[in-house]
TrEMBL record:
Belongs to the short-chain dehydrogenases/reductases (SDR) family. It holds the Pfam family adh_short_C2. Keywords: Oxidoreductase. The keyword Oxidoreductase applies. This is SDR family NAD(P)-dependent oxidoreductase. One of its GO terms (molecular function) is oxidoreductase activity. It comes from the Bacteria. It is an enzyme of class 1 (oxidoreductase). Signal peptide: none annotated. Its EC number is 1.1.1.-.
Length: 260
């Protein structure tokens, strides 16, 4: 007989979290989940109206949140994001490095230097800049958790997705390297590697329609697409003390797609 009393989700009460790409999809769901667990959330993205709606939702639910318009490819924007966070809340404990793009899915020979830049600027440069400036603050404090959104594309190949796949391999590589450099300084760095997730970005940029995406997902081991909320729960776990001995890990949340 198991007499263990189930515990509630690990609290993030009082911690300060930056979420990039927070205006929609996994970023938005993660901002809401982190706030629900007690974190004060700084929501960053380019779309100001969506950010303000998110912040209003968090505040209406009794949480604390702030919107900061941010282009993650601009280092000055990242510096301002971190500075604003510290000025408002006096700390930075969590970074969910979520912002990015799928770019254009097409055969490798049809890709161009321009589309390369469109993918690598946000996905790799943006992730690097946010890690660098948030990581510096966290190391000075001796604690922190960074979660990068690396996608299952960080560990597999995918037809017509060479640039996106390459960018996510790069993110996973930075995750592992930063973990080696920073773990003993109190900063954990991990990656979330989602599979097919039912978001507007996924259906608009990879599949021709939402139904095409769902049909693809039905053929996977899980038999369905994942939800932004399921990914948000993983982000909250990796941000929490429950994951205190996990660093440098790319957590696959793909419904078993990559093992088929």
């Amino acid at each position: 007989m198991n007499n263990t009393t189930p515990t509630s989700h690990s609290t993030l009460q009082g911690r300060v979290a930056i979420v990039t790409g927070a205006s929609s999809g996994i970023g938005r769901a993660s901002a809401l989940e982190l706030a629900a667990r007690g974190a004060r959330v700084v929501a960053a993205a380019r779309r100001e109206q969506e950010l303000e709606q998110l912040v209003a939702e968090i505040r209406n639910g009794g949480g604390e949140a702030l919107a900061v318009r941010t282009d993650i490819t601009r280092e000055s924007d990242i510096e301002q994001l971190v500075a604003t966070t510290l000025a408002e809340y006096g700390a930075l404990d969590i970074l969910f490095n979520n912002a990015g793009t799928e770019g254009t899915f097409a055969p490798l020979l049809e890709q161009t230097a321009e589309t390369y830049d469109q993918v690598f600027e946000p996905n790799v440069r943006g992730a690097f800049l946010a890690m660098k400036h948030a990581g510096k603050v966290m190391q000075e404090r001796g604690s922190g958790s960074i979660i990068n959104n690396a996608s299952m594309g960080g560990v597999i190949g995918f037809e017509n997705g060479a640039l996106y796949i390459a960018s996510k391999h790069a993110v996973l590589g930075m995750t592992k390297t930063a973990s080696i450099e920073w773990f003993r300084r109190g900063v954990r760095v991990n990656a979330l590697c989602p599979g097919v997730i039912d978001t507007a970005m996924t259906t608009d940029r990879i599949w021709p329609s939402a139904e095409a995406m769902r049909e693809f997902a039905r053929d996977s081991i899980a038999g369905r697409a994942g939800s932004p909320g399921e990914m948000a729960n993983i982000v909250a776990f990796l941000a929490s003390d429950d994951a205190s001995f996990i660093s440098g890990h790319g957590l696959l949340a793909d419904g078993g797609y990559s093992i088929a």
